[in-house]
């Protein structure tokens, strides 16, 4: 429930999907999952101006900022691994193709293009492949190794990594054994070995909130009014 611009990062991720017409969400709750439930249970209190009329015993909501969302929040355990969490919510996913992503990163990935790519290749799984931003500033060296300036290490100077934003067929759930299964290990590795995993290359913006530095960067982008992931 770490925030960007006063809203949980989870809210930002959901807004990305919702902008492409996907409004049905299943959220895997873990440690302090009650905080997520509380946020959505009191969504209007968090997002709107309200008047409490104690004489009439009612609450009046002003400037109601509602969303067309249906949200299922599932307690998946404090210690459950990523694969186990997905397995625990299987009953809520239906029988068709579904999407999954991590709750700590934002991107301007084109969800429609991602889904169409998945449909085109006929494999069981698609992950969004991204080139992570540079974690360290680079040195601009002059003659005799004199440092002339510091520059940002550019995005895309290395290989692609798993950026989340998956599109999956229901059969992938059969690859998850139990709560201890790490999604990024046996399930994904087996899909790769069997030729059932494709990469949707995304060379645009992508940033996970792994460190305080990441949070500061995301807050700065949001405050600037030019957050790349704000497509709504």
Q: What general outline do the C-alpha atoms trace? A: globular
Tell me the total number of β-strands: 15
Q: Secondary-structure element order, as H and E? A: EEHEHHEEEHEEHEEEEEHEEH
The CATH topology label is Spore Coat Polysaccharide Biosynthesis Protein SpsA, Chain A
Domain module tally: 1
**Could you give the distance between the termini?**
21 Å
Main sheet? 5 strands, mixed
Radius of gyration: 21 Å
The secondary structure category is alpha+beta
- Give the full name of the CATH homologous superfamily: Spore Coat Polysaccharide Biosynthesis Protein SpsA, Chain A
CATH class descriptor name: Alpha Beta
Share of helix, binned: 25-40%
Total of helices: 7
CATH architecture label:
Alpha-Beta Complex
Q: Determine the strand fraction and express it as a percent band.
A: 25-35%
- Any low-confidence stretches, pLDDT <50, length ≥5? none
Report the average pLDDT across residues: 91
Provide a brief overview of the structure.
By secondary structure, the chain is α+β, with helices and mostly antiparallel strands. The protein has helices at residues 9-19, 33-41, 43-47, 82-88, 111-121, 186-193, 212-224, and strands spanning 3-4, 7-8, 24-29, 49-53, 58-62, 70-75, 98-100, 105-107, 125-130, 138-141, 147-151, 161-162, 166-168, 197-202, 206-208.
Would you mind describing this structure in some detail?
- The protein is an alpha+beta fold and 232 residues long.
- It has a single domain (3-224), classed as Alpha-Beta Complex (Spore Coat Polysaccharide Biosynthesis Protein SpsA, Chain A), CATH 3.90.550.
- 28% of the residues lie in helices and 26% in strands.
- The chain has helices spanning 9-19, 33-41, 43-47, 82-88, 111-121, 186-193, 212-224; strands spanning 3-4, 7-8, 24-29, 49-53, 58-62, 70-75, 98-100, 105-107, 125-130, 138-141, 147-151, 161-162, 166-168, 197-202, 206-208.
- The strands form 6 sheets. Strands 7, 9, 12, 13 and 14 form a 5-stranded mixed beta sheet that branches. A two-stranded antiparallel ribbon has the order 1-2. Strands 3-6 form a two-stranded parallel ribbon.
- A hairpin with a 2-residue loop joins β1 and β2 (7-8).
């Amino acid at each position: 429930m770490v925030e960007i611009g006063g809203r949980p990062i989870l809210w930002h991720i959901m807004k990305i999907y919702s902008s492409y017409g996907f409004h049905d969400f299943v959220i895997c709750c873990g440690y302090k999952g009650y905080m997520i439930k509380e946020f959505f249970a009191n969504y209007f209190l968090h997002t709107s101006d309200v008047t409490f009329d104690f004489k009439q015993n009612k609450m009046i909501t002003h400037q109601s900022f509602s969303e067309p969302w249906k949200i299922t929040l599932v307690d998946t355990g404090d210690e459950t691994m990523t694969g186990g969490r997905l397995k625990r919510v299987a009953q809520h996913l239906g029988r068709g193709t579904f999407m999954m992503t991590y709750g700590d990163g934002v991107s301007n990935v084109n969800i429609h293009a991602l889904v169409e790519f998945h449909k085109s290749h006929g494999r069981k799984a698609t992950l969004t492949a991204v080139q992570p931003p540079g974690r360290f500033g680079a040195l601009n060296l002059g003659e005799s190794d004199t440092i002339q300036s510091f520059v940002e290490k550019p995005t895309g100077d290395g290989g692609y990594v798993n950026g989340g934003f998956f599109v999956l067929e229901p059969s992938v759930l059969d690859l998850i054994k139990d709560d201890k299964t790490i999604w990024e290990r046996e399930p994904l590795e087996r899909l790769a070995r069997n030729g059932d995993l494709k990469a949707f290359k995304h060379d645009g913006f992508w940033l996970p909130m792994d460190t305080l530095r990441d949070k500061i960067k995301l807050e700065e982008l949001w405050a600037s009014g030019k957050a790349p992931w704000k497509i709504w």
